[in-house]
């Protein structure tokens, strides 16, 4: 069974998503756990550099993202 996101103000269906199998969910959880463990091994300085770089990349996109809300 698929599920959807609905705009509560208009009732408009924004997007429909299909369900994932148990195997797909387990694979996603395993990947996430590995990524978290790797992230935790990084120093504060390394994590800060990554987050700052992500901000540099995404900040110019902010006006476009705001318009889509």
Beta-strand residue fraction:
5-15%
Strand order in space, largest sheet = 1-2
Task: Please tell me what the overall shape is.
Answer: flat
How much helix is in the residues?
55-70%
Succession of helices and strands = EEHHH
- What is the radius of gyration computed over CA atoms, rounded to a whole number of angstroms? 18 Å
Low-confidence stretches: none
Q: What would the average pLDDT be, to the nearest integer?
A: 92
Largest sheet: 2 strands, antiparallel
Number of extended strands: 2
Structure annotation, total helices: 3
Rounded to the nearest angstrom, the distance between the terminal CA atoms is 27 Å
Class by helix and strand content?
A: alpha+beta
What report would you give on this structure?
This protein has about 70 residues and is an alpha+beta fold. It has a domain at about 20-69. It contains three helices and two strands, in the order ββααα. The protein has helices at about 20-40, 45-60, 60-69, and strands spanning about 5, 15. A two-stranded antiparallel ribbon has the order 1-2. β1 (about 5) and β2 (about 15) form a beta hairpin. The longest helix is centred in the middle third of the chain and has 20 residues, at about 20-40. The model has no long low-confidence stretch (mean pLDDT about 90).
């Amino acid at each position: 069974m698929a599920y959807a996101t609905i705009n509560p103000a208009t009732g408009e269906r924004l997007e429909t998503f299909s369900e994932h199998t148990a195997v797909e969910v387990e694979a996603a959880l395993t990947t996430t756990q590995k990524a978290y463990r790797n992230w935790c091994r990084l120093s504060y300085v390394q994590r800060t550099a990554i987050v700052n770089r992500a901000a540099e990349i995404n900040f110019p996109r902010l006006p476009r993202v705001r318009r889509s809300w």
